[in-house]
Amino acid sequence: MMRHYLRPLLAPQSVALLGATERPGALGNFVWRNLAAAGLRGALHAVNPKHRKVFGQPCYRRLADLPQPAELAVIATPARTVPGLIEEAGAAGIKAALVLSSGFAEVGAEGRALQARLLEAARRGGVRVIGPNCLGLMRTDIGLNASFARTAAQPGRLALVSQSGAICGAILDWAAHAGVGFSSVVSLGGAVDIDFGEVLGFLIADRATDAILMYVEGVHDARRFMSALRTAARVKPVVALKVGRYAAGSRAASSHTGALVGSDVVFDAALRRSGTVRVKTYTQLFAAARVLASGRAAKGERLAILTNGGGPGVVAADSAAENGVPLAQLAPETIARLDAGLPPQWSHGNPVDIVGDAPPQRFADAAAALLADPGVDALLAMYSPVAVTEPGAAAAALVEAAHDSPKPVLAAWLGDINPNESRAHLEAHGIVNYYTPENAVEAFSFLCAYKRNQAQLMEVPSALTRAGEETPADLAAAVAIREAALREKRALLTEAEAKALLAAFGLPVPRAIAARERAGAVAAARELGFPVVLKILSPDIAHKSDVGGVRLALRNEEMVASAFDDMLRHVRALRPDARIDGALVQPMLQFPHQREVLVGVATDAVFGPVISCGTGGISVEAVADAAVALPPLNAVLARELISRTRVHRVLAAYRAVPAADLDALAALLCGVARMACLLPWLKEMDLNPVIAHPGGAVIADARVLIDPEQPARAGAHYPHMAIHPYPLELEGEIGIAGGVRLPVRPIRPEDAALEARFFDALSERSRYQRFMQYLPSLPPSMLARFTQLDYDRELALVVLDPGRQRFVAVGRYAPTGDGKTAEFALTVADDWQGKGIGRAVLERLCQCARDAGYAALYGYILDANRGMLDLAAHLGFVEQSRHGTEVTVVRRL
Fold first, then answer.
1. What pLDDT is stored for residue 378 in this prediction?
2. Do the Cβ atoms of 155 and 176 come closer than 8 Å?
3. Cross-strand bridge partners of residue 494
4. Fewest Cβ atoms nearer than 10 Å: which of 193, 387, 587, 743?
């Protein structure tokens, strides 16, 4: 594999500090001291035209004077000099720069202009930049501290990526006191070039990093951010501390949805969908990271609490209730086992209080009993200082009891806050120790959130529908509605247009008839059948109820005629400026046990379209019940979205009221999400109310605002969305020898069992040719990596047998380290070789990689694998190099 293109920036082998100086108080002084003290495993150069030497080391006038180009230029000079120094770096062959200097966009218009010049210089010279105005960069395994932080990072397995230098410094101070170490620390600063997405991309494959911590204030590129975050979270835990939770969000004009959906709510939905855990304080940041990096995953959320003190057990139980962690109900066999080994006065329930005089063996026996209970998913063991048992002895007993259990075990050795033997013993055996019961319970709640979010990460809905599954969208009709509105220079669709748009996507809307005059309204009511509803028809009125523009339950022709005249007179008096086109007549929707729900679409300034669901009706803002999710959705994600609303409790059965049809409501949400995927111009949509009832769901009213600046149809790879949908458009067939046609499609997360069976059926020779090593089975981590893809970056195509019961071939590509090219791999089942399958799949992969923007496709093939070498040559791959038995081939796309 190629070396990652950011390695010279994030893990350089040589560094040049521009602005190095001995002058007290200067930025170049602080940074040089930190660089020197860290002991960089590589060359360190000082650059400053004002000095011959800095702290006894040679100092060069210019970067061009260095004996060899450094991999990383660290710039600690005044802002006005930085663009020129970036030019100088590019000319000297240095392709990575860390700009610590301030005085750019953060100081106003002049600084923004200077920052633009910096970026222009970087692009001309091919220099990648972190900063400006950042704290710096640390990499402990190579002895790099290119920062002016007061506290250096201690070695560890966590990576920290932060937008705030001040918060980064505070976290480093806290971590040093808490004994938390890091593999990398990256302060992004102004992020003029490098942002979260690319740094995460580097950390995904970084073997020195077990978990990733982020401090986030905002995101510049949502697609790259989500793509990297979803990929990273599939292979290692990611924890985010996001600030600005109460800032005003992105508002979508005057819609109910826009009023309810703020940017922080959307960001929370993005993190949940990406498999990332969100925390609120940096104490929680480390608590979450430590438990997630411990390697023990919880199968459920039921927590057992073990304590030798009643008070801490109550505190832990209260914290569990506050954090939504259910306490495990102990099985009768567990109670009997505890009765046999504990004194009569034990608590006889969860929390399990083993009494203050508990010797070490009592700790061990009780912990073993709880971990053996099938109703217990995790254990929190707490020790309160007592004279009977030393903390080290209690810790050793807990370690012994937990040794053979795969369940997460957390500890809270209370009063034992300094690093010492008992804490070290616990953590050396994968039991993370916390200072308080609340810290420990919070940490477990993050483990539960991680499990739930990982489940969402497995869901990869498509934007399109498969034939026969659902009504396909009539995109031509949707575009015609848009064009008609734009010809009239309108962004707000009429209700009739909005409902026609919904009908084009197969969503349940009642028939409605527009009437310009009273007689037309009466005739329409007669045709539809009584009772009916009248709604004002105006392109200028967004919320009809606010101006008396709705009349309900009209049961005869006289009521319709009177309501028509009265409604138009009333609305014209309140809104004399509004164009009135008459009224819309529709049946009065009345169902037994109906509930009103709001379903909406808003456009977030960062993450694009967002789907919302909550309590509907005229009081939506007052109730403020809205859960949000990023499209695309499927039935699982839609049901999860509904479950996060307060109206969900009303939608469920209660007393003598049957449950609403949640499957129908979920299907409606999926249809709305499909609209957001396929219509980039769908800026806002309120479906309020959606009438949910035991027999289905129907849309009673609709309001749609369009964005004339957006294209009429979604572009390739859905650039208006933060999450790339499952590429259903790539499903198809391939023809092989004998006229047989086989299904081919992108791989999905639920294909793990098929992928494992495909691998198990391969001959040892085929396995060796694919992996270039003997691999008896696919480990779970590799299986997950092969089936849980980010379709924005990589692709795997699978060919199935005619019965769709097994894979007969798998071809895939994934990005290489340079970020511009991809590497392919191809395997055909032994009993299906020689039929033309490999050629068909590789041709498709080349086309897909080209469409994804890759410049070339590489392959690494054993020289003994003549069949693959011949196939590659036939399809235009050329040999680039040979290393031992391995041949590298490449095809420019």
1. 96
2. no
3. none
4. 387
CA distance 296 to 165: 32
For residue 20, count CB atoms less than 10 angstroms from its CB and return exposed for 0-12, middle for 13-18, buried for 19 or more: buried
| Helix, strand, coil shares, percent, the chain, to 5 | 40, 25, 40
pLDDT, position 291 = 86
Tokens read off for 642 = 């509904």
> For the residues 620-631, what does the mean pLDDT come to?
84
Strand partners, 602: 610
- How does DSSP classify residue 223? H
pLDDT of res. 259: 41
- C-beta of residue 384 within 8 angstroms of C-beta of residue 393: no
Closest by CA position to 461, among listed 611, 646, 685:
611
Confidence of residue 744 (pLDDT cuts 50, 70, 90): very high
Q: Which amino acid is at 864?
A: A
Q: Are 376 and 370 in contact (CB under 8 A)?
A: yes
What is the spatial distance between Cα 811 and Cα 868, in angstroms, rounded to a whole number? 12
Q: CA-to-CA distance for 672 and 96, rounded, in angstroms?
A: 45
Contacts of 487 (CB under 8 A, 6+ apart): none
Burial of 246 from C-beta contacts in 10 A (0-12 / 13-18 / 19+):
exposed
Q: Do the bridges between strand 608-615 and strand 626-629 make them parallel or antiparallel, or are there none, so unpaired?
A: antiparallel
pLDDT tens digits, 192-233: 999 999 999 899 989 999 999 999 888 888 898 999 999 899
Q: Give bridge partners of residue 310 from the DSSP assignment.
A: none
Beta-carbon count within 10 A of 822 CB: 26
The single-letter code of the amino acid at 748 is R
For residue 544, the surrounding DSSP H or E stretch is: none
Output the pLDDT for position 417: 54
CA distance 174 to 768: 48
Query: Which pair of structure tokens corresponds to residue 846?
Result: 């080349």
As a whole number of angstroms, the distance between CA 428 and CA 399 comes to 10
What size, in residues, is the chain?
A: 893
Distance CA 349, CA 330 (A): 7
Burial of 718 (0-12, 13-18, 19+ CB in 10 A): buried
Give the chain's count of helices (H) and strands (E).
29, 37
Mean pLDDT, to the nearest integer, of 60-74? 96
CB atoms within 10 A of CB 392: 18
Task: Check whether the bond before 531 is cis (ω within 30° of 0).
Answer: yes
Instruction: Compute the chain's Rg from CA coordinates.
Output: 32
Both tokens assigned to 74: 């660290």
Residues 6+ apart with CB under 8 A from 418: none
Residue 651 has which token pair? 């939608």
799 close to 744: Cβ distance less than 8 angstroms: yes
Amino acid, res. 124: R
Q: How many CB atoms lie within 10 A of CB 466?
A: 10
Residue 668 has pLDDT above 90, yes or no: yes
Which of 52, 46, 55 shows the shortest CA–CA distance to 19? 46
Q: What are phi and psi of 51, to 5 degrees?
A: -130, 150
Burial 593-605 (b: 16+ CB within 10 A, else e): ebbbbbbbbbbbe
CA dist 891 to 498, 846, 864, 880, 888, Å?
A: 48, 9, 20, 10, 11
Per-residue burial over 805-820, b if 16 or more Cβ lie within 10 Å, else e, is eebbbbbbbbbbbebe
Angle at 730 between CA 729 and CA 731, to 5 degrees: 95
